[in-house]
Amino acid sequence: MNDSARTDNFPASPHVPDSGQHSGPPAGFKGESTPPVVLLGHGSRSPKANAALAGISAMVAELTGWNVSHACMELSPPTLDSVVGNLVEKGHRRIIVMPFFLFQGIHVQKDIPQMLSKLTGEHPDLRVIFTDNLGIDRRLAEIAVDRIKAALT
C-alpha cells in the first residue's frame, strides 16, 4: 500500500469500488490483502464520460485481479453512498477509495473527505483507505505526448 494512503482521517485524497462491480476476487474480508477498490470520478451528464470511468475501473480490475467498482461524486449514478452501501451490505469492512481526479482541487481536498467522513459515521465499522489522486506523474505526460504526436500525423 502507498505510504501516502490515509485511513479514517480524510485530509486530502483516496482509493477503491461500486455497485456495478467489475471482475476480480472478492476482497476486504478479514484475512484478505486488498480490500475492494472504488474509483471515484466526478460524474457527468454525458453517458460517454461516465462509461469511460466504468471502463477504467474494469481495466484496473483486469490488471490487478482486485474487486474494483466505480462511483460518481455527483451528476450521475452510481453514487458513492450506493456503492459503499452495497459493499458494506456484502460484509466488507475495509475499502479503498481512489479519487480519479487529475488535480488536487477542492473536491479532492475537502468535498470527498467530507463525504467519506459522513459514510464512516453511518457505517461505524467501516474503515476507508483514501488514496492520493492521479496528480503529477510522468506517465500522464507520456500519454499527452502520444496524443499530440497522433494529432500531428
Structure in words:
By secondary structure, the protein is α/β, with parallel strands linked by helices. It has a single domain (6-152), classed as Rossmann fold, CATH 3.40.50. It has four helices and five strands. The chain has helices at residues 47-64, 80-89, 106-122, 138-152; strands at 6-7, 37-41, 68-72, 94-99, 127-130. The protein has a four-stranded mixed beta sheet. Strand 4, helix 3 and strand 5 form a beta-alpha-beta unit. The protein starts with 5 loop residues before the first strand and ends with a helix. Residues 1-7 and 11-31 have low confidence and may be disordered.
Indicate the structural class: alpha/beta
CATH architecture call: 3-Layer(aba) Sandwich
Described by strand count, sense and barrel closure, the largest sheet is:
4 strands, mixed
Distance between the termini: 40 Å
* Low confidence ranges: 1-7, 11-31
Domains, number: 1
How many β-strand stretches? 5
State Rg: 15 Å
CATH topology: Rossmann fold
Mean pLDDT reading: 85
Descriptors:
single chain; 153 residues; alpha/beta; Rossmann fold; 4-stranded mixed sheet; 4 helices; 5 strands; 14% strand; globular; disordered N terminus
Write a concise synopsis of the structure shown.
With 153 residues, the protein is of the alpha/beta class. The chain has four helices and five strands.
